[in-house]
Amino acid sequence: MKIAYVLNTYPQPSHSFIRRELQALERQDFIIHRFAMRPSCAALPDPGDQAEAARTEYVLQAGPVRLLAALAREAAAAPVRFGSALRLALKLAGDSDKGNLRHLIYLAEAAHVKQRCSAEGVQHMHAHFGTNSAAVAMLAQQLGGPGYSFTVHGPEEFDAPHALSLGEKISRAAFTVAVSSFGKSQLSRWAAFGKWDSLKVVHCSIEPDRFAEPAPLPPGPLRLAAIGRFVEQKGQMVLLRAMAQLVGRIPDLHLSLIGDGEMRPDLETAIAEHGLQRNITLTGWLAEDGVRQELARAHALVMPSFAEGLPMVVMEAMAAARPVIATYIAGTPELVVQGQTGWLVPAGDEAALAEAVLALAQTSPEQLAAMGRAGRDRVLERHDSANEAGKLAAHFRSAIGG
């Protein structure tokens, strides 16, 4: 079976879970054609991402002339169907703050994708995120292309369901995937009751072979790792404030902040203001091997987010047999079990976060190792890439009718 994945910006350093999903499906004999609207403007340090970029067809690189020509061909070949797709695009624009022009561009992208799907023999389209990629897939279907489905991660989709026409996208999709039970509950708010059976849970996943032999917990002073884009929702500023409360209480405490983003100057300023230069290192984005090395050097992962879907970094830390301190939000409690695999704290509460780190520091190495093993067992059971790809493959086959 041949599937087209429709993506906005791909690959990106923070979206390695999409790459793993694609490759797991390919190991199950699916043929995947990768469409992305645009390449990432971020550096791609991971060789896996570089290889994905080379395999991806970038729609906007076709240029405005070819996209407009694709649109004109659709209008000439099937004017009634084209008119229906145009009305749908304008309806989406009415819900959104992006305006008519942006959605006419989506329609042109959809025309190109529809025609390329026909040329490639694609039987089904799948989009990641309920944003413009799902809009393009939906419009391509309306133009006569194959059926579509999409995966919703959150939190962006849950923050603006009306502006993203989330209910419309669910209603027209063959099925819609949530990455957690929490995510499915949020989709149920926007799906008609008759579409509830089309809402599926397929977890983001890890490749167990990449975490075959977890490193033992390191000796020496407490080392923490935090991984994610430097953006408001990831909560790194709360973590810095908690660190400021802890440096006098935990000798030689160190935190590695792995990632990058628009908040980097603010974080650098806060580190200097609190005198934390010796205690915090900003590593930038690292390749997967570099992330695993940082986790091996750490005693625990800290995820201080305000909003999430189901965080991949927590899965990777648990697979590496590291306890996790995380905020009690979204799908995270489906991963982290208080007192068994880590600690859960209220989002935005720097004092509670500091107390959790202090509790970690006061836990014996033997108990921390036991928590790490319990977390590893849990994530390998629930988030194996082959198993999750098998679930998704079954949904694709059902949608295609094979």
Describe the structure.
The chain is α/β, with parallel strands linked by helices and 402 residues long. Helix content is 47%, strand content 16%. The chain contains 16 helices and 13 strands. It has a 7-stranded parallel sheet, with helices on both faces. It has a 6-stranded parallel sheet with strand order 10-9-8-11-12-13, sandwiched between helices. Strand 9, helix 11 and strand 10 form a beta-alpha-beta unit. The longest helix has 22 residues.
CATH topology descriptor of the largest domain: Rossmann fold
Let me know the average pLDDT.
Answer: 95
**Widest beta sheet: strand line-up:** 3-2-1-4-5-6-7
> Could you tell me the strand content as a percent range?
15-25%
Structural class: alpha/beta
Helix content: 40-55%
Distance between the termini: 9 Å
pLDDT under 50 segments (min length 5)?
A: none
Radius of gyration based on Cα positions: 22 Å
Order of helices and strands: EHEHEHHHEHEHHEHEEHEHEHEHEEHHH
Going by CATH, the architecture of the largest domain would be 3-Layer(aba) Sandwich
CATH superfamily of the largest domain: Glycogen Phosphorylase B
Number of strands: 13
The first-level CATH class name of the largest domain = Alpha Beta
Biggest pleated sheet: 7 strands, parallel
Tally of helical segments: 16
Enzyme class: transferase
Protein name: Glycosyltransferase
EC number: 2.4.-.-
Pfam family, one: Glyco_trans_1_4
Keywords:
Rossmann fold, 47% helix, 16 helices, 6-stranded parallel sheet, 7-stranded parallel sheet, alpha/beta
